[in-house]
Design brief:
The structure holds 2 protein chains of 2 kinds.
Chain A lengths: L9 H8 L9 H12 L6 H9 L3 H10 L11 E6 L2 H5 L2 H12 L12 E6 L11 E3 L2 E3 L4 H11 L2
Parallel strand pairs in A: 1-2
Antiparallel strand pairs in A: 1-3, 3-4
Chain B lengths: L1 H4 L20 E6 L2 E6 L4 H7 L25 E2 L18 E3 L3 H16 L15 H8 L22 E2 L2 E2 L13 E3 L9 H10 L4 E4 L6 E4 L16 H5 L5 E3 H6 L4 E6 L8 E7 L2 E7 L12 H5 L14 E2 L8 E2 L2 H19 L4 E5 L5 H14 L5 E3 L6 H11 L16 E5 L3 H4 L1 H12 L3 E5 L8 E2 L2 E2 L2 E3 L6 H14 L5 H7 L2 H11 L6 H8 L3 H13 L3 E5 L1 H4 L4 H14 L9 E4 L6 H6 L6 E2 L3 E2 L3 H11 L11 H10 L4 E5 L3 H4 L3 H9 L3 E6 L11 E4 L8 E4 L4 E5 L11 H11 L9 H11 L8 H7 L1 E3 L43 E6 L24 E4 L1 H6 L7 E6 L3 E8 L7 E5 L27 E7 L5 H13 L8
Parallel strand pairs in B: 1-4, 16-17, 16-27, 18-19, 18-23, 19-22, 23-24, 27-28, 28-29, 33-37, 34-36
Antiparallel strand pairs in B: 1-2, 3-4, 5-6, 7-10, 8-9, 11-12, 12-13, 14-15, 14-29, 20-21, 25-26, 30-31, 31-32, 33-38, 34-37, 35-36, 35-38
Helix pairs in contact in B: 9-26, 10-26, 10-27, 11-20, 14-18, 14-20, 17-18, 23-25
Classes of the chains: A alpha+beta, B alpha/beta.
C-alpha cells in the first residue's frame, strides 16, 4: 500500500478478516493477510480484530507489538532486510549495512525519499554459511558485498 | 513440636499465599524440615506459606494463577534436577523441599540485581515506600550491590531516567494520570504482569496487555494510542491492588502517604455487599481496599466501592439540622434540640388534627438493619400506625411476593460462591457488568471456564458479548413481555418432557403441578404463538429453554428488569416455576437469585419496612406476631396494614396524609411520575428528610436532619445473598450523630424514651423478635465475619443454600402465570418503548457518585436510540432530543447504538437535570405496586434545549435550597 494512500476503512478490514474466523488460532493468519495486502497492520484493524475474535483491544495490540515483523506504518515499494546476527557481523555485515544506509541517506526502518526502498534489520535469515546475507521482498540473497548490494538497490529503483 | 513451629494465623490474617487454594486429596511433604499436608494441586509456594515459610516472590499472588516469570521463588527439591519455580510446581507425596541454600541465595540475588538495574533507587520519595514488594524482596534476598555499570562516557539503557547522558531517553515513558483515581508510572514497572493477569483473571475485562517484547516490554492499557481512561479499563482497581511497586498507585496514597491502620467494613453501594478494608491515617481515610476474606467479593471490587467514597467529605454535605415553616422559605440552620422539638410539635399537631394515621415513614435501603428497624419501630410504636414503606417498594417488592408465594421465603436461594459451580446461567432483566460488577466478574470467570449463558434483555448488554465471553442465546424481548417469554420457556420444557419429575414429585405440590401443566401446555403459550408479540425468535427461545433444562446446574439471576413491571410479581413466579420444573433448587450452582439494587434492600425488607409486615415477613394482622412486638415494646400495635408509598402520596393529595419522615431516600427522583410525587409532597405539612445532602425530595421538606455516611456508623447490611455483613465505624460522624441515634432522638422528642447506646442492642432486639435472625449477635459476627440468614437454633452458622431438603413452605408451589399486558401501550403519538437502567460508574439517583470523580465516565444521562429510529426522526449522535410520554417530557442528548432494538430507547436516571422519571408513568405491579419503570411509551424528537418543566424545576430547586446565614 502506498505511503500516502487513505487509511483502510473498517468495513474493508472486516471483509478481509471475516472469512478467516473459523481457522484454528485465527489472529496471526489475519494479521499476516492484512500485512500482505496493506504492507502493514493498520491501526483501525485493532478494534475490528478485537470485535471479530471477541478479544480485548489490548490483547490484539499486545500480539501485534510482540512481533517485529508486523508494522504499524506503510513501507516503501520494496523492503530490504539486512542480517545483523553474529555470523553475518563476523563477515562484515555491519560495515555493509552502514554504507548502504549512508548511500541511501536514511536510518534503520526508514524509507528512501522516492518511496522505493525501506531498510530493516533482521536477526538471522538462516544463511550463516553464505554470510553476509540480506533479503529483498522475501527473496534471500547470500554473500552480499557492496557490488551485489548496489545491484539489489538498482533493481529496486532506490 | 509442630505447634511451636507452625504459626497460628489469627482470623483475618490476609497475607498473600502466592497461589490460589486448591481442593483435592491430601498430599504430605516436607518443607525446610517441617511436615505439612495440603490438598493435591497446591503449589510448593502455597504449601510453604501454610507452614509460615515465605518464599521470595514478585509475580505470584494468590488471587491469580501462577505465572512463573520472576524466577525469584526458585527452590531445591531433593531428587529433582535444577531449581524449579515453587509457584508453578505442584506438591507431590514425600517431596522434600529446601527454600534456602547458598545456591538459591546467589540465584535470587542475581535475579534481583537485574530487576534493580532497571529500577530507580528513589525509595525514600516513592509513593510505595514502606508498602513495596520489590523493596521487601530486595531485603529478603539480601541485595547489597548492583554491579551493572554504564560503559565509560555512555549510559546503561534503562526505562526510568528522563535523560541518557545529554540526550533525552527514548525508552522513558511519562506517567499516565488520565484515570482520576490512580496513576500509572511506567518508570517504576518491573513488568511482572500481575496487573495484566488481574485484569484478565480477576476482573475479566482484558483491558491491559504487555506491549513489545524483551527489554522493550511495557504495560499498555488498550491499543497503542489509548490511555487508561480511553481504554476498556473499568477502574475496578484490581491492577492497582496487584501491583507490587508504585507503578499503579492510588492517587490518594500519593497525596496522603501510606495508611497505617485499617478497619474492615462493608461497601454501601450495590446489593453485592463487598467487604472492604478502610485504610486510614488517624481519622483520614486514605483508601478502600477490597478485603480478601469478604465472602461476597473474595477480594475483588468495582470502581464505586473502591474509589467513589469521596462524597462523604463533599462540600455539599449538610452537617447541621435545618428547619423552615413553609417550603417556599429559605432554610434556617438550628441546633439539634430545636430541630427535634419543632419536628415533634408538628407531627403531634398533625396527628391531633388529622388522626393517628396521617403520618408515616419511609425507611432506607441504604441505611443499616438496625437503623431501618428503629424507623419502622418509630411508626409502629410511636406514631401508632403501620404507615411504613421502603424504596424496595420501587425495586424488589415483587421478589418478596413471588418467591414468598412459591418457595416460602422472599430471598435469593444461593450464596455468590455458588456461581462457580453453575453450568448454565440465565440472566433476566439484569445488567450485572454495570449494576453488580463484582458479581459479574465472578460470573465471567465461570463463563470463561465453559459455563453457558442465556440473556433475556431488550438491550444487548455487555454480558451478552465482551472479551472472551459470549452468550449462547440472547433473547431481545420487547419491554413488558417478560411473562410471555418465561411462560413460553416453561411451555417448551413441559411439552418436550424436559422437566424433572422426581424433583417435582418429592419436593412440590403435585396437584398444583398438574394444574400448572394444563395451563402451560396450552398452544397459546408456545414460542411460535408469542413471537410476534415478544419479538423473540421462536427457535432461539426453544433452544434456550432446552439448554436451561438440560445443560446441568442451571441458575437464574434476575434484576429490576423483571420486577419493575405491571407483571413483575408474575414474572418472579414464572422464574420460580422454571427452577422447580427443572429441579434447579437446593444445591450449589443452581437456584433463583435476585440481584438487589441497593446495599441493604434485603435488610430493609427483612426489618419489617412494609406496611403489612412486621420484621421477618409476618403479617401485621396475625395477633400472635403482634403479641411478640407488643410485649417487647410495651405498646399496642395497629392491626390494620398501613399505606404504601404511592398510597401515601395519593392520600397526601387528597388531604388525609400530612407528615412523612423519609430516611436516606430521594423519592422525588427515584419514584415514577415525578409530577405526582411532587404534588403529593407539596401537599404535606411536615416532610422530614434525613439525608447526607439536600436531595430533590428536600426541596419539599420542612425539616432536614443531617445523616451520617456508612463510614461513620456501626451496624449491619444484608446483601443479595442474605449475608449479614458488619459495617464498622471508620471515623466519627461529621454531623454529630449516627443515623440510628437521630431516629432515637426524634422518637424521644415524641416521648418514646428509647435508651439504646449501641446498635448491637438493637440487633439483640431484632434477634429476640425475629426467628430468622434468632442466632445473630455482634459477638458472633465479629468471629464469623458474616452470616447468611436464617441463622437460628436449626442453623447456628447461617444458611448459605436455601431449600436444600425441602422448601421453607413445605412443598414448592407452582402457580399459573397468565400474561396480562400492561396498560401502557405504544400508539401513533408514542410509538417507542422507553426502558431504564443503570451504568457502571453511577449508583441509583447519583447523589453519591455524582459527587465523586466518577462523573469523568458518565457526566450526563444519554438516550440510547437505534440508528434507524434516529434517522427517521432526524436525530444525530449527541443531539438534544425531547423525550415525551403521556406523563411528561424531558430533554437529554442522544446516543446512536444498535445495543437497543428498533422501537426501543433506553436511558439511565442518575442525574436530576434529566429527571427521566418525569416521563415514567404511575402504572405498577398488580400485587405489590412496584412501579413500572421499565416500560413507558414515548416519542423522541429533536430539540434545542431543556424543557419548560426542567427550567421551572431548576428554579424551584434553587429557590428551595437557599440557606439563611447563621445568626450572628
Amino acid at each position: 500500500m502506498h505511503a500516502n494512500a487513505p487509511a483502510p476503512a473498517e468495513d474493508e478490514i472486516r471483509a478481509i478478516v471475516a472469512p478467516m474466523t473459523s481457522l484454528e488460532g485465527p489472529l496471526l493468519p489475519m494479521l499476516h493477510e492484512l500485512q500482505r495486502i496493506y504492507g502493514f497492520v493498520p491501526e483501525a484493524a485493532v478494534p475490528v480484530l478485537a470485535d471479530v475474535l471477541n478479544l480485548g483491544r489490548a490483547e490484539v495490540h499486545g500480539v501485534i507489538s510482540f512481533y517485529h515483523d508486523f508494522r504499524d506504518h506503510p513501507t516503501g515499494r520494496h523492503v530490504l532486510k539486512i542480517c545483523r546476527a553474529e555470523a553475518c557481523q563476523s563477515m562484515g555485515a555491519n560495515a555493509l549495512a552502514e554504507s548502504t544506509l549512508k548511500k541511501l541517506g536514511i536510518g534503520w526502518h526508514d524509507t528512501t525519499s522516492n518511496g522505493a526502498v525501506t531498510v530493516e534489520p533482521v536477526y538471522c535469515l538462516g544463511m550463516c554459511a553464505c554470510a553476509p546475507a540480506a533479503m529483498i521482498d522475501g527473496r534471500v540473497v547470500g554473500r552480499v558485498d557492496q557490488a551485489r548490494m548496489q545491484r539489489l538497490l538498482d533493481e529496486a529503483g532506490a | 513440636m509442630k505447634d511451636f513451629i507452625i504459626p497460628q494465623f489469627a482470623p483475618g490474617d490476609d497475607r498473600d499465599m502466592g497461589t490460589p487454594a486448591r481442593t483435592g486429596a491430601p498430599v504430605s511433604l516436607t518443607i525446610d524440615g517441617i511436615e505439612i499436608t495440603v490438598p493435591e494441586g497446591t503449589s510448593v509456594m502455597r504449601a510453604a506459606a501454610e507452614v509460615g515459610v515465605e518464599v521470595p516472590k514478585l509475580c505470584a499472588s494468590d488471587n491469580m494463577e501462577a505465572y512463573g516469570s520472576c524466577r525469584l521463588c526458585v527452590v531445591e527439591i531433593e531428587g529433582r534436577r535444577g531449581t524449579p519455580a515453587s509457584c508453578t510446581t505442584p506438591v507431590a507425596p514425600g517431596m522434600v523441599v529446601h527454600t534456602q541454600s547458598d545456591k538459591l541465595r546467589r540465584m535470587r540475588r542475581g535475579v534481583m540485581e537485574l530487576y534493580i538495574s532497571d529500577h530507580p533507587l528513589d525509595c525514600l520519595t516513592c509513593s510505595a515506600n514502606g508498602d513495596c514488594e520489590l523493596q521487601d524482596m530486595a531485603g529478603a534476598v539480601g541485595l547489597r550491590d548492583v554491579r551493572y555499570e554504564a560503559p565509560k562516557g555512555g549510559a546503561l539503557d534503562n526505562h526510568f531516567a528522563t535523560r541518557q547522558g545529554d540526550q533525552p531517553n527514548a525508552l522513558y515513558l511519562p506517567k499516565d494520570d488520565s484515570n482520576p483515581y490512580f496513576s500509572y508510572d511506567p518508570s517504576k514497572c518491573i513488568v511482572c504482569s500481575r496487573c495484566v493477569r488481574a485484569c484478565e483473571e480477576v476482573q475479566g475485562t482484558f483491558a491491559l496487555t504487555i506491549e513489545g517484547r524483551g527489554f522493550d516490554s511495557r504495560v499498555s492499557a488498550g491499543a497503542s494510542l489509548d490511555s487508561f481512561l480511553t481504554s476498556d479499563c473499568v477502574s475496578c482497581g484490581a491492577c492497582v491492588q496487584a501491583c507490587p511497586t508504585a507503578t499503579l498507585q492510588e492517587k490518594s496514597v500519593i497525596e496522603m502517604g501510606t495508611p497505617k491502620r485499617s478497619v474492615i467494613t462493608t461497601c454501601a453501594y450495590c446489593g453485592v455487599g463487598c467487604s472492604f478494608k478502610a485504610e486510614l491515617n488517624g481519622d483520614q481515610l486514605v483508601r478502600m481496599v477490597p478485603y480478601k476474606h469478604g465472602k461476597a467479593n473474595r477480594g475483588h471490587s468495582c470502581v464505586k466501592g473502591r474509589f467513589a467514597y469521596g462524597y462523604a467529605q463533599h462540600k455539599d454535605r449538610i452537617l447541621k439540622p435545618m428547619i423552615r415553616d413553609q417550603i417556599s422559605d429559605p432554610w434556617r440552620e438550628v441546633e439539634w434540640d430545636e430541630a427535634l422539638q419543632f419536628t415533634a410539635d408538628r407531627l403531634r399537631g398533625i396527628q391531633q388534627k388529622y388522626g393517628r394515621r396521617s403520618v408515616g415513614v419511609i425507611t432506607s435501603s441504604r441505611c443499616t438493619n438496625e437503623e431501618t428497624f428503629l424507623v419502622q419501630k418509630l411508626t409502629r410504636a410511636v406514631f401508632m400506625n403501620n404507615n411504613t414503606d421502603t424504596c424496595a417498594r420501587v425495586c424488589h417488592s415483587p421478589t418478596g411476593y413471588g418467591l414468598g408465594k412459591t418457595y416460602g421465603t422472599s430471598a435469593g436461594t444461593q450464596d455468590f460462591d455458588s456461581v462457580a459451580e453453575t453450568d448454565v446461567v440465565m440472566i433476566i432483566g439484569a445488567n450485572p457488568t454495570d449494576g453488580h460488577p463484582v458479581f459479574a466478574s465472578r460470573l465471567k470467570k465461570r463463563l470463561r471456564q465453559g459455563a453457558k449463558l442465556i440473556v433475556v434483555d431488550p438491550r444487548r448488554t455487555d454480558i451478552v458479548r465482551s472479551a472472551h465471553i459470549e452468550a449462547s442465546h440472547h433473547l431481545p424481548l420487547k419491554p413488558g413481555t417478560n411473562v410471555a417469554v418465561v411462560t413460553a420457556m416453561a411451555h417448551v420444557i413441559v411439552t418436550e418432557g424436559l422437566f424433572d419429575e422426581d424433583f417435582i414429585r418429592t419436593r412440590c405440590d403435585w396437584d398444583e403441578f398438574q394444574f400448572y401443566v394444563d395451563f402451560v401446555k396450552d398452544p397459546r403459550h408456545a414460542p411460535e404463538a408469542i413471537e410476534a408479540m415478544t419479538g423473540v425468535p421462536a427457535a432461539d427461545l426453544r433452544a434456550a429453554a432446552r439448554l436451561y433444562a438440560t445443560g446441568g446446574n442451571g441458575a437464574i439471576y434476575y434484576g429490576l428488569g423483571v420486577t419493575e413491571h405491571s407483571q413483575g410479581s408474575t414474572t418472579v413466579i414464572g422464574i420460580a416455576n422454571l427452577a422447580m420444573l427443572t429441579g434447579n433448587i437446593g444445591r450449589p450452582g443452581v437456584g433463583v437469585n435476585p440481584l438487589r439494587g441497593q446495599n441493604n434492600v434485603q435488610g430493609s425488607c427483612d426489618m419489617g419496612s412494609f406496611p403489612h409486615e412486621l420484621p421477618g415477613y409476618r403479617h401485621v394482622k396475625l395477633p400472635e406476631v403482634r403479641a411478640i412486638f407488643e410485649n417487647a415494646w410495651g405498646v399496642e400495635i395497629d392491626p390494620e396494614p398501613g399505606l404504601r408509598i404511592p398510597n401515601m402520596l395519593d392520600a397526601a393529595v387528597e388531604g388525609t396524609f400530612k407528615g412523612l419522615y423519609c430516611q436516606g431516600e430521594d423519592i422525588l427522583q427515584s419514584d415514577p411520575d415525578t409530577h405526582h410525587v411532587a404534588s403529593g409532597l407539596a401537599a404535606m405539612e411536615c416532610v422530614i428528610v434525613h439525608d447526607l445532602f439536600l436531595n430533590e425530595t428536600a426541596n419539599y421538606a420542612h425539616v432536614f436532619l443531617p445523616g451520617s455516611s456508612f463510614l461513620e456508623k456501626n451496624g449491619t447490611f444484608t446483601n443479595a445473598e442474605r449475608r449479614i455483613n458488619m459495617v464498622r465505624k471508620v471515623m466519627a460522624p461529621k454531623n454529630g450523630y449516627e443515623d440510628w441515634e437521630v431516629t432515637q432522638l426524634l422518637a424521644n422528642a415524641l416521648g418514646a424514651n428509647w435508651t439504646y447506646t449501641h446498635p448491637s442492642q438493637i440487633m439483640d432486639e431484632i434477634a429476640a423478635t425475629t426467628p430468622s435472625f434468632a442466632g445473630v449477635n455482634y459477638e458472633m459476627l465479629e468471629v464469623a465475619g458474616s452470616v447468611q440468614w436464617p441463622c437460628n437454633e436449626d442453623a447456628p452458622e447461617g444458611t448459605p443454600l436455601m431449600h436444600v431438603d425441602g422448601f421453607v413452605s413445605g412443598k414448592g408451589h407452582f402457580m399459573v402465570t397468565e400474561y396480562v399486558a400492561t396498560d401502557e401501550r405504544t400508539g401513533p403519538r408514542f410509538p417507542l418503548l422507553l426502558t431504564t437502567g443503570r451504568i457502571l460508574t453511577h449508583y441509583n439517583v447519583g447523589a453519591q457518585t455524582r459527587r465523586t470523580d466518577n462523573v469523568v465516565w458518565h457526566p450526563e444521562d444519554m438516550l440510547e436510540i437505534h440508528p434507524h429510529d434516529a434517522e427517521q426522526r432526524g436525530v444525530k449522535e449527541g443531539d438534544w432530543v425531547r423525550l415525551a410520554s403521556r406523563a411528561g417530557e424531558t430533554t437529554l442528548r442522544a446516543r446512536l447504538t444498535d445495543r437497543v432494538a428498533t422501537g426501543v430507547v433506553y436511558t439511565t436516571f442518575h442525574h436530576p437535570a434529566t429527571q427521566a422519571n418525569v416521563v415514567t408513568t404511575d402504572f405498577s405491579d398488580w400485587a405489590t405496586n412496584c412501579p413500572e419503570f421499565k416500560v413507558t411509551a414515548v416519542q423522541v424528537s429533536p430539540s434545542n434545549g431543556p424543557t419548560d418543566w426542567q427550567e421551572r424545576y431548576n428554579e424551584q430547586a434553587e429557590l428551595s435550597r437557599r440557606i439563611l446565614p447563621a445568626a450572628e
